[in-house]
Fold this protein.
Amino acid sequence: MKLQYLEFEKPLQDLATKVEELEKAHHDNPKLNIAKEIKQLQSKRDDLLHEIYDQLNAWQISQVSRHPQRPYTNDYIDNLFTDFQELHGDRAFADDAAIIGGLANFEDQPVMVVGQQKGRDTKERQYRNFGMPKPEGYRKALRLFRLAEKFNLPVITLIDTPGAYPGIDAEERGQSEAIARNLYAMTELRTPIIGIVIGEGGSGGALALGVVDHLMMLQFSTYSVISPEGCASILYKDAKKADIAAESLGITAEYLKKVGLADEIIPEPLGGAHRNISATMESVKQSLSKQLNRIQKQPIDILLSTRYQRLMSYGDFES
């Protein structure tokens, strides 16, 4: 699949296009002595990639977190887990395709995996509701959490949503109640929970999978009470001021780790997870393996006490 470039990557795209043209010319006519020129352009391209990604602001990181080629929950399930068995439905209303969950093995250990899933093309995006769950999605997730608790299985959540679906039908079926119930249930769930923000973690829609014992964020992921556009629309009456709102919100992994809302930052390949998916998967696998082994060694009562203290510490600060 041809790499898609973001707006701030335009200079990089121009260089990459020139490199591709020279490489094609050399392939079509091997007698052309342009290897030196290709190497110089490749080096310049790599230097520019470093320069751009070393200076990303919050709004640009938000764009990277939403990149259409970024790996989604299904990609992580396919690459990190084996024997995945998807479980469907909330046993009350319907099956919500925006949330995927089921039993799987991670390094030969049974676990429960639950995450939001976006779509790659128009048809799948509609089917997945653009990764925005409805109440039945959160109730399905809760059913799987309870199942994991019953069989002493660790829970791994993969967070990637712009937010819970705000439509009338979702509100009629109790969207806020479903999210609130998940928050409450996860605080007392008697099994280890690890959360990984793999893309954008938006509002309560993300938090409904985010009450965990250890929260990891990919380097270019975001986690926020509202999207930058939503914040700008409310505060400035202009969604085009999303870049200003993004800086004020403090949505980046680096900032959230600094203030204690995220526990760990998983480094991404230069240019984002979509540029080297295999390297991304390896980094996530190593971090997940380490933290899962650590958390499982703790007695469940200690784990629950620590989880509670973690929640109660949110908002503490010194001026």
